[in-house]
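Handoff note, outgoing to incoming analyst
You'll be picking up this chain. Sequence as last confirmed:
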Amino acid sequence: MTIEEFEQFIRHTIQYLPKKLLTQLDNVKIVIEENPPHNLPLQGQYDDIPKTKRYSYFALPDKITIYKQPLLLISKNEEETKENIKNTV
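Most recent structure output, in case you need it:
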């Protein structure tokens, strides 16, 4: 699967998340990387500044990094890939 196809899977999956979760993705950047650093067993990683520590709304965005290869390795088909992406986000 190309990075473009994988990105489309992510966009599609996020588009159909429950509204309760979508509202939490305000000011969140989603990044795709092939593999996690240091061969860690991760499908994704969330980096943020706790909302209680932010000094203004104009803080840098939180970041969700989705690791393509680990997600594809645990997925048997496209539907399972979408479900694993949803669970990671």
